[in-house]
Amino acid sequence: MATDPVCGMYVDEKSSTLTTEMEGRKYYFCSANCKLQFERPEKELRNLKIALMVSWPLTIAVAVLTYVLRLGFGNYIMLVLASIVQFYAGQRFYAGIADAIKNRSANMDTLIAIGTSAAWAYSAVVTLFPSIFPAGGVYFDTSTIIISLILTGTYMQRLAESRASVAVSALIALQPKIAHRIEGDRVIDTPVEQVKEGYILLIKPGEKIPTDSVVLEGESAVDESLITGESMPLAKKAGDKAIGGTVNLTSSLKVKATKVGEDTALAQIIKIVKDAASSKVPIQKLADKVSSYFVPVVVLVGILASLYWYLFWGVGVNTAILIFVSVLIIACPCALGIATPAALLVSSGRAAKAGILIKSGESLQRASKVTAVVLDKTGTLTKGTPEVTDIVAAAGYDRMEVLRLAAIAEANSEHVIGKAIVSKAQSMKIKSEFPKKFAYAQGSGVTALTKSDKKIIVGNRDLFGNMQLSGLDATLQEFESEGKTALIIGEDEKAIGLIAIADALKEDSRKAIDLFKNGGYSVWLITGDNQKTADAVAKSLGIEHVMYQAKPKDKLDKIADLQREGSVVAMIGDGVNDAPALTKADVGIAIGAGTDVAIQAGSIILIKNSVYDAFVALRLGKRTMSKIRQNLFWAFGYNIVLIPIAAGALIPVFSISMYNLLPMLAALAMAFSSVTVVSNSLLLARFKD
């Protein structure tokens, strides 16, 4: 059984004739109104507004004739006015019944149409054939007020839903329409949908980047805040990646399109947000199960209640009809149907705004139950690229000179450690040079000869043999105990200093770990690195549980062990070797700067390269599930409490006269319940990162 994405009612996929396909996915609807709301929400809103402009003036006129003027021929005027409301403003409910018959299922329109029709038909018979019910009053006011109230509630719900979907609309609005394609000496304006991979594009200052690209020429600042949530503009130069939909701020860029259409990051974000908003969470199964049997049960309860009071308590036909109408109207399960989708829509949109992509509602529910967090090290807690962390000079030497000589020796090196030394020298504006000679010793380091014939050695203890370290031994041991790669710098067979290199921690790693621990999560570091490095990182972050030299299968096995012990596990990683663990974990959280394999394996994607956002995602999961439970409690509680009242439970207390107002109050309560559920869900938009 499929679920209507608008109202949440069950729809039989085999018999349903109301379907639509969007972005490769097929949706099923219980009524044409729901289909229209899904495909063209702005037209549905306009139609509702017109219906309200007709129904409320006529409803007020009927109420005045009923309670104020009381004209002798007033029943005939009310019949005409109420008929317009019933069959024009309320025609959507009859269309819903027709759809239900075609689909061989009952929907929410069924309850409203049957209930109001019963009140209208009884009143019409009393008006046109008074001899049939000589003592009967008319209830045109009941049918018209019910329809007007329900339409008003639906209109307010649609307005609230349009606010809820603003995040998706904002993402769609980011997609530019035109790209400036460079072809030879010409610049040709080309619709974005016609841009192909490999096209060379010109991005002017202030314009949006049309599609995912790589910068070929130019340097500029780019605002990625609406895509990644990164507050500060990022500098872009040749070789850097640019995300489609972001804004070029300061200078022109020449870029090469790398991904187009549905493959772009923005298109994938929009798809993920939409899928999450329309997906189900396990807790919704209860609501779906109830909804599938709800309508026929309610109709049966209404019939039995009216017959009971008519046959055994001697109430009149008119009161029996009002009992039937009240049960049907008060039981309309609108709030039940939208309790989960409304919260998921707001939550997934809010998450996307914070740079967090949630692939499904089920991921959010699992995230709310996580008790253990497993983290990879490289690229997750650390930046993933080695950096120079310490420079120590021996007595009589200068730190900058130590770095300069090391940069000369490593100038030709392709090793990541050598590149880190050269990068550090460049960042400190140290003038370097290429060596006259260069030799690489596998696993030990490099030796080089400067243009002035100085011999430079950069490497580990093995490369220096028994050479005296000039009092640097203690510092060298300290660096090694901290898990850093410590290099000895020598000049002409004499050690002159040390350079320590490490994969530096991200700025927010310590904050994230503290939050996980304070939040009651069990935190594990599982890495392929050696014991010294793993222990050093764990110690600096305060992580108590550590596994080192772990292969992909080891990570997977450890997660399985934790799950067998009763833990609900979130795995946070970024590499290909993390993919099996991300899939095995209850919640796989992939760092967006990681590999495509890891991103595909994750159920939650962090667009920013920030492990703190993993904590935000878990906290948002808890908040969302709290809202869904509140919504379902309200929807179920509302029906559990009010259906017995509508069926006459309070007649012995308040007498039959309570039914003079109960149908109208039922309609008001039904409309209010739907608006309350949507409004409660909208509070998720205030969630703080």
Identify the overall geometry.
Answer: elongated
- DSSP strand tally: 26
Helix percent band? 40-55%
Structural class: alpha+beta
Strand order of the main beta sheet, please? Answer: 14-26-25-24-15-22-23
- How far apart the termini lie comes to 37 Å
Largest β-sheet summary = 7 strands, mixed
Question: What does this protein structure show overall?
Answer:
The chain is α+β, with helices and mostly antiparallel strands and 689 residues long. The chain has four domains: 2-167 and 279-346 and 624-686, no CATH class; 175-266, Calcium-transporting ATPase, cytoplasmic transduction domain A, CATH 2.70.150.10; 359-381 and 506-607, HAD superfamily/HAD-like (Rossmann fold), CATH 3.40.50; 385-504, 3-Layer(aba) Sandwich (Calcium-transporting ATPase, cytoplasmic domain N). The chain is 51% helix and 18% strand. It contains 25 helices and 26 strands. The strands form six sheets. A seven-stranded mixed beta sheet has the order 14-26-25-24-15-22-23, with helices on both faces. The chain has a six-stranded antiparallel beta sheet with strand order 6-5-7-13-8-11, with no helix packed on it. Helix 2 (41-69) packs antiparallel against helix 6, helix 5 runs antiparallel to helix 6 and helix 12 runs antiparallel to helix 23. The longest helix is centred in the last third of the chain and has 35 residues, at 612-646. The chain is elongated. It starts with a strand and ends in a 7-residue tail after the last helix.
